[in-house]
Amino acid sequence: MPPARSTKPLHATARDPAYKSLDADVFTKVWAENSALTAQSAKALHSVGVLRHWTEGQVVLSRGQATSTALLLVKGRLRVSVTTPEGEEQLLRWMLPGEISGLSSVFAETTYPADLVAVGPTQVLHIERARLIDLISHDPAVAVDLLRILGLRINQLFDTLADQGMHSLQQRVWATLERIAKFNSVAVPDGVMLRVSQSDLAQAASASRQRVNQQLRHFQEQGLIRLGYRNIVLLRKTPAR
């Protein structure tokens, strides 16, 4: 069990069992392989899509916007978020190259459920519904791959809901760190570095930046993380006690 979800004090919890699922060379590789389309499917989609370029801060899709286009991220990152009734942005995740979005909206002919914003120069392949339907009707391998992606998205949604349902801020922050590590981290000598600002983390954990900062400093004091500029490192080893 991860330290923040244990019933024991955090300083008395072994870090290694929690880190086992966060091994930089395995964890991020497995996530990237599972969340992205196969090379065969990506090639087939490229044959029917149109590549568009987006710049920093441009809104690719807005929540509630009608869309008939699936989006395959080719280069860069896309920020996925929603805005609460109180007007606060809540970060859900980032899309990374190789991932596709908008499938549920395209297949169900519904509006897009979140805001999708470019982070830096971004290239997105836009695939119209008619072309996509025609492709999967002739290529079962692509259809199965897209079903796999939809299944992963459903599981990710349940993970997010479970994280948000935690009553303890400590639990929510730690669960959010683990969730972000799945799709937005890189290996460093002493652990896994999450490329995330504290503001983004606070939005993802549904808490104020001040409270999240206090919790992060608490984790740092216990030797579980190291805080940097717009990054957080989940440390590999348990500090000596």
Structure characterization notes:
It is a single chain. Strands 1, 2, 3, 4, 5 and 6 form a six-stranded antiparallel beta sheet that branches. A four-stranded antiparallel beta sheet has the order 7-8-10-9. α5 crosses α6 (140-164), α6 (140-164) packs antiparallel against α7 (169-183) and α8 (198-204) crosses α9 (209-221). It has helices spanning 15-20, 24-35, 39-46, 103-108, 129-138, 140-164, 169-183, 198-204, 209-221, and strands spanning 50-54, 59-61, 69-83, 89-95, 100-101, 115-128, 185-188, 191-194, 225-228, 231-235. The protein is α+β, with helices and mostly antiparallel strands. It folds into two domains: 3-31 and 168-235, Orthogonal Bundle (Arc Repressor Mutant, subunit A); 36-162, Jelly Rolls. The longest helix has 25 residues, at 140-164. It contains nine helices and ten strands. The model is unreliable at 1-32 (pLDDT under 50). Helices cover 42% and strands 26% of the residues.
Give the full name of the CATH homologous superfamily of the largest domain. Answer: Jelly Rolls
Strand content: 25-35%
| Distance between the amino and carboxyl termini | 19 Å
- Proportion of helical residues: 40-55%
Calculate Rg over CA atoms.
Answer: 19 Å
Number of helical segments? 9
- CATH architecture label name of the largest domain: Sandwich
CATH topology of the largest domain: Jelly Rolls
Q: Mind describing the biggest β-sheet? A: 6 strands, antiparallel
Classification by helices and strands: alpha+beta
Global outline: elongated
